[in-house]
Structure formats: C-alpha cells, structure tokens
Amino acid sequence: MDAVKNRDDLLSIKEEYLRRQKSYRRQVLVCGGAGCISSNCGEVRDALIKSVSTYKLDDEVKVMVTGCMGTCAMGPVILVEPEGIFYTKMNPEKAEDVVARHLLKDEVCEEYTYFDEDEGVHVPRMEDIPFFKGQVRVALRNCGHMEYASLEAYISRDGYGALARALSEMTPAQVVEEMKAAGLRGRGGAGFPTGVKWEAGMKAVSEDGRKFMVCNADEGDPGAFMDRSILEGDPHSIIEGMMLGGYAIGASKGYVYVRAEYPIAVERLGNAIDQARKAGILGENVMGSGFSFDLEIRIGAGAFVCGEETSLLASIEGKRGEPRQKPPFPFEKGLFESPTIINNVETLANAAPIILNGSQWYRGFGTEKSAGTKVFALAGDIVNAGIIEVPMGTILGDIIYKIGGGIIGGKKFKAIQSGGPSGGCLTKTHLNTPVDYESLSSLGAIMGSGGLIVMNEDTCMVDTARYFMDFICDESCGKCLPCRNGTRRMLEILERITEGKGQPEDLELLEELAGTIQQTAMCGLGQTAPNPVLSTL
C-alpha cells in the first residue's frame, strides 16, 4: 500500500478494498478472539480454506479471520456474509459440511446455527439472536466484522477518517470541545470526563516541551477481558484514538502499557503499529499536517497495582510499580516528569467515532450523565458468557436474562459482582437497576472497567469475599500500611469464618477495618479493597 498523504488517499484505499470484497459472492468470517483460539478456531479456518479450494470456490468465497464476535461460550464461531448466518461450536468436520452445503448449494446448515434454549429453536441469522439484538456497538464496531490484521479493512470501515478530519478541519481546542460535548467518561473505572482530561493536558505547560499520551491496557480484574478483545480485534482503533489524543494535547509520543499475559494482543497491536508506520500514518508530518506522532508498546509484568496511573507510569520508566502521592497529577507531571494523559483502551476506542460522527450522535446513546455505550465481560454462571456492548442505563436484569441468556442449568440468580476486586455485589433486588455510573455507585458497587461475574444460588458469599480479598492481598504493592496489613487481617478473619471458627464480633471488626482502609490507603487499589467484603456483608 502506498503512503497515505491525505483524506483522498484514504478514500481511494477504501473504494479499492470494497471493490475487491464485492468481487466475492460470499465472505466467511472466522472468529479469532482469544476464546475461539483456545477452542481451536485455527483448525476450523484451515478446514474452510481447504474445502473452498477443493470445491474450486476460491474466486467466489473469501475466508477471513476477525476479532472476537462476543459469544465466547459458543466458540469456535463463524459468520457467513452477506446472509448473516451464524454458526456456533464449529469443528473441521462441520466446517467442511458448511462449505459443501451452504457455500456450494446455498443450503443453510441449520443444525449448526445458534440454538435458543428458551424457545427450543435454531436461530440462523445473527441479527435475530437475542444476544446481539440488545447491543449497540461503538467501541466494538469493528470487532468480528473485519480482518483484524488488515489496515485496508480498517480504512474501509472509515478508519483514520476521524484523524484526517481532525488534522485538516479542526484545531486541538476544537477536538477537545467535541470530546467534552460528547460526555464520554473514562471507561477504566473512575468515570472522569475524557474531554476535561484532554483539556487539562492541552493547557498543561511542559518545561522540556514534551507531552505524552499513554494507553492503560493493564486489564487485571478477574473475569474482565474487554480491553483484550478490542486490542486483538481492532488494534488500529486504539492507534487512531491515541493519535487524536496526542493531537489534542500536543503530544508527539505515546505508550501502550499492556500486561504480559496478553501475548496475542501484543502481537496484533505491534503488527498494526508497523502497518501504520509503513503507510505514513504514524511518524513524521502525518498526512502533510505538520503533526508528528509515534507509538511504543511497553509490556507489564502482571502487577494489578500497575492499573493505577502513577504505578503504571513508574513501570513504564523502568521503576518498581508503586503508586505515589497526588498532587502533582499526571497531567501536570507524569511520565519522565512531563505532562501525561492516560486513557484506557475502551475510552480511546470511542474517540474516533465521536470525532467522525459528532458529539450529538454519541449523546444519542446512554443517559444524560452517562453518555454512550459500555463494554462488559459476562463471566461466571451465565449461559452466554462473552463480550457485550450496551447503551449506558440498560437494565441489569436485561443484561443477565435477555442478552446473557440467564443462569446456567436454570438455577436461580443470587448476585453479580460488578467492577472486579474494587467493586461490589448486586442481588436480585437490584435487577431493575439501570447500569450507569450514578446508579451503581449509589448501591455501593461501581462500574469499574466492565467485568460482570454472575453467581447462582449455590454460591457462598463468604467464599466470594475471601476470594477477592485473597486476590487483593496478593496484588498489594505493600507501600502503605493500611493496604499491606489491613487487607491481610481482613483475609485472616474471612478464612476463619469459612473454616467454621467465626465469631459474631468478627463482622463488626471487618466493617471497622474496612472503614479504616478506605480512608487511609494511598491509592485506589487500597481504598476500594474492602468493597467486596462490605457489599457481600
């Protein structure tokens, strides 16, 4: 591909790619998300390619590997376009059958399609499946619908169009104002307004002239895999989001901090960065605008505390990942003592659609105070475990029963852990709660980064609290005494209770310890560590 010099070049690439795609009668999209990889989607892809060749359909059918389609519990899955037929739990033999019947003879293999257990029928078309019907995809707009490894495929879906628009038509201040008007709040858990954060970065004065954009991809919550899915399925959207942020705040360098447990995400993002550099999208004088920006990946060693922004910056600098007191805040003095803006993966994935479509379009989703959509990872005792994206304010019960398909084995719902180790549990009395920042915090839970762990009637809540406290104790950096010692004492009490040696006064002591830790711990990890215990109490 030739170097991209302007918006016209992007348009030419888009038209050429779509022309090639239309030359095929059908496209077969194979889910290449981590869940499907673990269930051998590679064998399914190979079987499809071999069978397509055997039946001499190479000029009519294109087999592509995409990012996560969302239905992790049903993998490997494939999607046949343009009909939109969705096949689940595939294997090489089924794949060969799909080629022989569907692709060759136009006969849908209904027995391999999604089975709706409530209705007792197969639902062949993806758009008719309840799991997908309740979703609105903005951050996940490309995941599962394009070749994750193709820059041309990303451009064909208006990729880098927002960057081209910003560089040619907008000043940095106008980009910031658009983000502020959109009402996008940080999807990493804190919910701080993204536009306000970018404005602080834009106005910050750098003593050495340097500013930095940092992407926090250190997703460490148990049961959370939202950022991973975006990085694996749509890496260019993160590059574009970081470039928009860099343009807005005046940064010429960015870092993506990814945990080492995400090797597939690291590989795919690295390849996307190389593609963008070769196309002249990353680097000096981007699209002739005078704006220069480049990216590097930094791999973390897996410390949960490095999800906290000051710990993350210390780790990028090669120091021990420990938090520091604020102020100064990172936007004033962050990476290498220079102004730094940190956003998480999902936040950055929303940036390009906002700049491309406008803030009012984005405001059309969600609620007044919680605009847009939110990506969640459904895990635990739920039928449709996987990745979803819904408008802010969606009712919790709809997420669990309409999209999630209810509890495995028809058991009763007991609780859902929202927000990971820093979050809290919601019970059946909260099923009518709108899922947004204000509603969840009023109930003692938090949105967090978006992990939702569903528990059935057999779950012991003391064991649940002990599990999360054990996780917190392991992940505490030990820098401050309340987190280092306080969480250890709470864990000892919980272990004593699970062994049948608990005393009534233990509950009061747990609450007293929790209150002290919340008020005196140094960083967000310690301050929110008691939340699972308090909410399960």
What does this structure look like?
- The chain is of the alpha/beta class and 537 residues long.
- It has a five-stranded mixed sheet. It has a four-stranded mixed sheet with strand order 2-1-3-4, with helices on one face.
- Strand 3 and strand 4 form a beta hairpin.
- Helix 3 packs parallel to helix 4 and helix 8 packs across helix 11.
- The chain starts with 6 loop residues before the first helix and ends with a helix.
- The mean pLDDT is 92.
Describe the secondary-structure layout.
Elements: H1 7-22, E1 26-31, H2 34-38, H3 41-54, E2 61-66, E3 78-81, E4 85-87, H4 92-105, E5 114-116, E6 121-123, H5 130-133, H6 151-156, H7 161-169, H8 172-182, H9 194-203, E7 212-217, H10 226-233, H11 235-249, E8 253-259, H12 263-278, E9 294-300, H13 309-316, E10 340-344, H14 345-357, H15 359-363, E11 373-380, E12 386-391, H16 396-403, E13 413-418, E14 424-427, H17 437-442, E15 451-456, H18 461-475, H19 481-498, H20 504-520, H21 524-528, H22 531-536
Parallel strand pairs: 1-2, 7-8, 7-10, 8-9, 11-15
Antiparallel strand pairs: 1-3, 3-4, 5-6, 11-12, 13-14, 13-15
